[in-house]
Design goal:
Blueprint (H helix, E strand, L loop, with lengths): L12 E3 L22 E3 L2 E3 L13 E8 L2 E8 H20 L1 H9 L8 H4 L3 H16 L6 H40 L1
Antiparallel strand pairs: 1-4, 2-3, 4-5
Helix pairs in contact: 4-5
Amino acid sequence: MHGSCPAAPTRCQRGPRGASRSDGRSDVDLPDVAAESYSGRRGRFSPIAGPSGRPLAGTLSTYCLLDGELRATRGPIMLRLLWAASVYTRYFLRRSMPTNILLDAIRTRRGLKWGIPATLLAAPYLLAASICTNLIGGGGPGWLNLLVLLFCWNFLKILIMGPVSLILLIRVRIQEAIARPAEA
């Protein structure tokens, strides 16, 4: 460790200065971040002050013992909020959009046999994309480009799932055939 670094914690700890650990004990082994600066690979920095020396608003510090030295890093809360929003958006879209519901049903054991027939449902998406493209070419609003992108994405998802479900069905049937003689 470098000369001014105090005793380092045994594991990474996250939280603002003076926060408590998950086991309920106080962070007595963490340094006072207002008084110390630490050397990292990116140079010396203080977990409270930014490159200009001014305090950073909305950040939490993470202390880690890496390569024998204590390193403090900053992480803006904004990134955590964006990450959480993207996760919730994904879950919402996964549960409520028709093509996602269809693809989840096809991926089950009972639904694998419907993969190839479900590929026929890709044709309406291609037709809708073609209609929107013609409307855009005829002077329609620009936001129809987003619908074209959405329709093409759904078309490709359903089109690709047909052969993939066939491969998965063959694999499952082979596994079931191997397991049958073992049971008898």
